[in-house]
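Subject: sequence -> structure tokens, single chain

Hey, anyone have a minute? Need the predicted structure for the following. Not urgent.
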Amino acid sequence: MAGGSRKWMILGATIWIQAFTGTNFDFSAYSSELKTVLGLSQVQLNYLATASDLGKLFGWSSGLALMYMPLSVVMFMSAFVGFFAYGLQWLLIRSIITLPYFLVFLLCLLAGCSICWFNTVCFVLCTQNFPAIRPLAISLTVSFNGVSAALYALAADAINPSSNALYLLLNALIPLLTSIVALPPILCQPSLEPLPLDAVRRDSLIFLILNILAVLTGVYLLISPIASTFTTARLLFAGAIFLLVLPLCIPGVVYAERWFRQTVNASFCLDGSGFILVDADDLELHKELITRTGSNNGSGVSNVLKSDGSHHELVGYNLTQQESCCEKLIRKDQLEMLGEEHRARMLVRRLDFWLYYITYLCGGTIGLVYSNNLGQIAQSLGHSSNTSALITLYSAFSYFGRLLSAAPDYIRAKFYFARTGWLTIALLPTPVAFFLLAESGSSSSILHASTALVGLSSGFIFAAAVSITSELFGPNSVGVNHNILITNIPIGSLVYGMFAAIIYDGNASFSISMVTDMVVCMGTRCYFSTFILWGSLSVVGLVCSVLLFLRTRHAYDHFELYRQIS
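Reply:
Had a minute. Here:
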């Protein structure tokens, strides 16, 4: 019983780590001031934003560190690297020290690397303490990474709303303090023991409750920009902290729920609820049934052996029929089943992987680049005073998108749809948002609505990516394969941000506003071409996601069929 209590304390600690270490999402809050202090062009500022994303290229180093050092040591190494990187940037903006541009670039790179290390620590904690329901644990905790910008905006407003440099100081201190708070439960991890089926169902129900609580937290954060006074901002920040403390009460919920089940004998049943799309046991069963499937001999029909010894007829593709070009593209080198392990060399030869890579590159990564440019976008459209509100809005809807990524696991029993299909649906808001921004001019309402749509879409992609990578290319290889996948983030950040910066600087001469000794672009012209470009690229990502869905749908359908008839 004590072990069950401690694992929920670890989950609460993991939620706090994720909630306060997404420090790269508030870059746009202080980017304008950093640009002014260093006297940078928009292109040079884009390099600094890219440097933070380049830290993801070194995410593999955290796994290497965990091979030789305890989890707690790796966590504090992450915290101190971030403290050093953000602390020196704060001193720079406060004009306490001066640093050359190259060193500032390296500091941004270190800050991005520290975020990756924190994410690895959280991933390992979820894997070690919730092996039976790992997707739910990872989905929930990763979701809280999306509220970091909103939380930091609330904290800054509660302390000194007029100081943008304060964000850097908070980025340096809060992750370190959070690591200190999270240390005791991490040091007292329970021994890993297999859980009975009823315990897994109970844990799944608790995660459902936690997701409901998480939705309430997101709704609460949406009202934070309404704060108009210093006192109101402090009250809203205190309320956000209270909502983050609630998950730490889960040990009590565990025992209360057990007492309720035993005393009241609740009438609901979780059998067949399908909280997990692909777990280890189902995956092994799926592989076994695949090997026991009869050959179709070109007829398009296979016989699957049920667990009771009977046969089930499975209708497949008739390969003898003449195929069109599109059908050949969809059929070529298709995945036969979910969960097949792919080593790196095999992975990069898969057409499915490159469709997936482009989908992420032209979907979630564009949303991240948009968030990095929010400060300059708001400034150019004459909405500088709304920058903090826009950051909070993006953060909150990114958080909702991350939470929605777990929806397929909860509704699987009533409505089954391949996760790659959900990915396609999640991409739809992105091109709509960018084309609206290009069409609307400087409309404040369209800017807010589009920011929410981009945040919702990119948040879903960020959270769903780990599960999709695991399902398509193997759960045992997910660490390496996912790090290969997210190399698209620094590439996209550099390329997309560079195009946006070149267009911005090129249009600055048409509408000039002097800020100290700098030229700032003002007007809709500054980002019009960028929005068209980003919208067109997101359409490319949408097309690739549709192809990926069509190529992997049969593998998902077969897996679900085998699960039902077993």
